[in-house]
Amino acid sequence: MSPLQVKKQGRESSQGIIRRFSQRLRKSGILFEARRNRFRKRKKSKQLTKRSALRREAKKAEYKELKKTGKRYNS
Fold first, then answer.
1. How far apart are CA 43 and CA 18, in angstroms?
2. 20-65, pLDDT tens digit by residue?
3. From CA 54, how far away is CA 9, in angstroms rounded?
């Protein structure tokens, strides 16, 4: 992708150049992509996903046992 360039045309004012540049920037989608990718999160690795799933299952079993013995408040 080439960088966006806008050249002055004849007796065009600086505001006109800025307006044309803004329009080209908006139509190119560069700004949209940058804003969309700004807060994108990376995917978890398979190992990390598996580890967290196993931890969840262990916690569920622990809570179930505590509820059965009455040591955990029933909610």
1. 38
2. 999 999 999 998 999 999 998 889 999 999 999 999 999 999 999 9
3. 65
Answer for the pair 6, 17: CB distance below 8 angstroms, yes or no: yes
- What whole-number distance in Å separates Cα of residue 55 and Cα of residue 51? 6
Cut 0.70: pTM above it = no
Find, among 19, 32, 27, the residue nearest to 6 by Cα: 19
**Contact status, residue 18 vs residue 26, Cβ threshold 8 Å:** no
| Sole residue written with tokens 């969840």 | 56
Single-letter residue type at 29? G
Q: Residue 38 corresponds to which tokens in the numbers above?
A: 């700004």
What distance separates the 2 farthest-apart alpha carbons in the chain? Answer: 85
